[in-house]
Here is the input.
Amino acid sequence: MKINIKYFGMIAETAGKNEEILEVDEGIFARELKARQIKTYQIADPESVQLAVNQNLNTEVELKEGDEVAFLPPFAGG
Amino acid sequence: MKINIKYFGMIAETAGKNEEILEVDEGIFARELKARQIKTYQIADPESVQLAVNQNLNTEVELKEGDEVAFLPPFAGG
Amino acid sequence: MDKKKPKKVFMQGAIPPEKIAKSIANHQSKTNIGAHSIFLGQVRADEIDCKTVSAIDYSAYEEMAEQVFHEIREDAFSKFDITCAHIYHSLGEVKTGELCLFVFTSSAHRKIAIEACNYFVEEIKAKVPIFGKEIFEDQTHQWKVNK
Amino acid sequence: MDKKKPKKVFMQGAIPPEKIAKSIANHQSKTNIGAHSIFLGQVRADEIDCKTVSAIDYSAYEEMAEQVFHEIREDAFSKFDITCAHIYHSLGEVKTGELCLFVFTSSAHRKIAIEACNYFVEEIKAKVPIFGKEIFEDQTHQWKVNK
Here is the structure.
């Protein structure tokens, strides 16, 4: 199934891209996708990375076809 | 001796004047002057009235010739 | 420096919003500032015994008030690591919806700017000899008391 | 009403001081307001390892951020008896000395306006997916993290 991935800030810089579409197996959890992409792109300081699945912060959710998963570095608003 | 008295806000309204010069006996304390003027002008709610002697809030001071004594109703800045 | 200069706090009539914009713009060259906190007092059309306030006429024991403002500033600069602080208060008539108090504090960090601003507001309300005559629409009045 | 309308928070580049004056002026017809509290974030020329920040380039996960801003607003209106609340945040480059955040709360009473303003600032810093690239004078950069 296809998952739409978005990268922001420092992570986008490390990954060298702002988004990509990944083909993944059914039943994959957000946290598994997180671990995989952190390894793929050697993303620094993984504990500081939050995932938003369809705009909700959550890594304990099973992904579905067409989900939007955002990789978010620490917030710096204000 | 002469004391310069100033009235503000509600007190000035009640007294019908903003200032006056009073001739008083040597040795008078601020609190005595306060009691006297409150009686003279029938100033309402005497506990809420503060006195400033030469711009310092204080009724326990002995007055001297030329002192400026201000009668201050409750503050309402802001 | 900023701290020592004696500042004029009182101004005649309402504080125009443009004054606030100007004060903010004046601080854009101070690049050690990270946060500004602003408090504005606005005259409310309170209803009291079926009568509506249309304006407040402010008066003050001006010489003492300027001295107390100065002491509050000195205290604030010793208590809080602020870069600058400005206070303006109206005298005379301020209509409902218009501004009567403008407190502006700046610091490198937000918590300090915010705490200092609150400190100023509370101190001003409690300690400065300013008096307010609430004028109703029928031209009668009553004297305001801070809570 | 004010509460329900979806509001656009992000704006391109720095927030001009005139925008703040305009927001204030827009509230002078609301005569049930007695107090406004304003917080402004300004970009600091921090020195890090002998290099000086000259600007912050802000980006955001915009769709999510607008949704989070909306939730923060809903929470604030349920927690605090405020009349209105406005938030603006910059995207793109904001130079040192310029404003990147403008939070504006209004209430009948000062304590409520002030508490609500603080609530917004803390919530925004903690919960909104906004990212800041601190650009140094030599054009190198590092990524900002909120404390």
About this structure: The beta strands of chain D are 10-12, 35-42, 47-48, 51-60, 82-95, 99-107, 130-136, 141-143. The first strand of chain D starts at residue 10 and ends at 12. Chain D has three helices and eight strands.
